[in-house]
């Protein structure tokens, strides 16, 4: 059995039904879908998504990313996206291994193994695609195989995860990930602003105040923020607000006006317009469809 077939077998056995499955390995989850899915909003935290079977599309702002078993996705900062499985069936379901990135370990590895070429000072996009190498796939298989031998997880999982992070850090094309591992990088400054926005998305805010958090001038902050997230700071905040409003209507049965007010909208009509622009349906119709 080759490495990819082995990974497919492991994920299939440990994620036997559709959904996101946590595992005994800290920071590792498995995803399965036996059919294509509608675009759904989610906030990616620093993450590796390694597909074993199927295909997925992720849209962040104006940027779109399509990846499969030949390529993997890395998100280096918290970012709201719309994600959809676009290739899956009952006989060949979408299967994916997701690993939360440990930034402390990445920072240590970045210091121990500096880049062979000088990295650009300007931050790149927070989502990057790269070719799945045999070495990365082999490490992912060994990590997933630990699910068959739970007694080995405590001793071996940290070593295997460290190897995976090393593979990501030393792969070409991951300038953003290496920048994120540096405390004084522009990307880390933007990450501070993103963290503030995630915690205070429901509050009024001035761009100048958020730029101060990042330690940049207004114009520099706006340019770097858009380079990282493919959206403006206000569009980023709107996505966070609308995702939470959708959750409130579906999970807590709030009406549209109440959900909009809870997430920071003062105008119900503006909330409805933004909601339709993002989700394609008015709030009440969309929430009703999701509930059923």
From TrEMBL:
SUPFAM superfamilies linked? Homeodomain-like
Domain of life the protein comes from: Bacteria
Which InterPro entries did the record assign? Homeodomain-like_sf, HTH_AraC, Tscrpt_reg_HTH_AraC_N
UniProt keyword annotations, A-Z: Transcription, Transcription regulation
Domain HTH araC/xylS-type, by residue range, is 191-289
**SMART domains recorded for this chain?**
HTH_ARAC
Q: Which Pfam families match?
A: AraC_N, HTH_18
Q: What is this protein called?
A: AraC family transcriptional regulator
Question: Which organism is this protein's natural source?
Answer: Pseudomonas azadiae
């Amino acid at each position: 059995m080759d490495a990819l077939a082995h990974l497919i077998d492991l994920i299939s056995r440990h994620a036997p039904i559709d959904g996101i499955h946590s595992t005994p390995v800290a920071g590792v989850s498995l995803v399965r879908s036996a059919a294509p899915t509608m675009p759904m909003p989610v906030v990616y935290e620093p993450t590796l998504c390694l597909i074993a079977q199927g295909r997925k599309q992720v849209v962040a702002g104006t940027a779109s990313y399509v990846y499969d078993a030949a390529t993997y996705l890395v998100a280096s900062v918290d970012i709201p996206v719309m994600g959809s499985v676009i290739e899956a069936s009952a006989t060949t379901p979408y299967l994916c291994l997701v690993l939360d990135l440990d930034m402390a370990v990445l920072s240590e590895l970045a210091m121990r193994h500096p880049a062979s070429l000088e990295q650009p000072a300007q931050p790149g996009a927070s989502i990057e695609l790269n070719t799945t190498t045999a070495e990365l796939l082999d490490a992912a298989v060994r990590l997933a195989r630990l699910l068959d031998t739970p007694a080995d997880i405590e001793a071996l999982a940290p070593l295997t995860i460290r190897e995976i992070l090393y593979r990501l850090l030393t792969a070409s094309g991951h300038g953003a990930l290496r920048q994120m591992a540096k405390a004084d990088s522009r990307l880390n400054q933007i990450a501070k602003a993103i963290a503030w926005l995630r915690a205070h998305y429901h509050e009024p805010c001035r761009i100048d105040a958020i730029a101060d958090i990042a330690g940049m001038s207004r114009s520099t902050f706006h340019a770097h923020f858009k380079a990282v997230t493919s959206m403006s700071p206000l569009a980023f905040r709107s996505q966070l607000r609308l995702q939470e409003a959708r959750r409130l209507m579906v999970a807590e049965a709030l009406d549209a006006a109440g959900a909009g007010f809870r997430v920071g909208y003062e105008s119900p009509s503006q909330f409805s317009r933004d909601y339709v622009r993002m989700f394609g349906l008015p709030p009440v119709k969309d929430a009703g469809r999701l509930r059923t």
